Amino acid sequence: MTGKHSFATGWWLRLWLGAWLAVLAAPAIAADVTGVIRVVDGDTFDVGAIRVRLHGIDAPESDQTCARPDGTPWACGAWVNAQVAARYGGRQARCTAVDTDRYGRVVARCKTAGADIGQALVSDGLAFAYRR
Q: In DSSP terms, which residues pair with 45 in a beta bridge?
């Protein structure tokens, strides 16, 4: 009888602890992130001390190459990264968390001076609109 009781107690304890961990983690996901932008790549920023992936867009990776219409390669990822860094690096942002990705980054909609950064990057041809 003792074995069943200790199993049941252990199971309930794990369930209770898991529920508390979920409750404690929820505010971190739901909270706004504010801070100065440091561009990691075209769709990923460090905002203050938090790594943020912009929600709803996909930009070339920093080391990605693309092909010109004539087939010659060019460093499109480095170019996009430089463009995004010139526009947003060092600026103050306010990001509203939407999710976390498989790498543990906060996925968020970010604004600077009231303008949506992801929307601007897509409008300017620096990123693609992206839906999972």
A: 39, 52
Number of compact structural domains in the chain:
2
Is residue 43 within 8 Å of residue 59, measured between CB atoms?
yes
Domain residue limits at 61: 31-129
68 shares a domain with 14:
no
Region 67-73 average pLDDT: 97
- Answer yes or no: do 14 and 79 share one domain: no
Token digits for 78? 């480095």
Structure tokens given for 92: 């103050």
Q: Residue 19 — pLDDT band, cuts 50, 70, 90?
A: very low
**DSSP run (H or E) holding 128:** strand 128-129
- Give the C-alpha distances (Å, rounded to integers) separating 21 from 7, 100, 105, 118: 21, 16, 18, 31
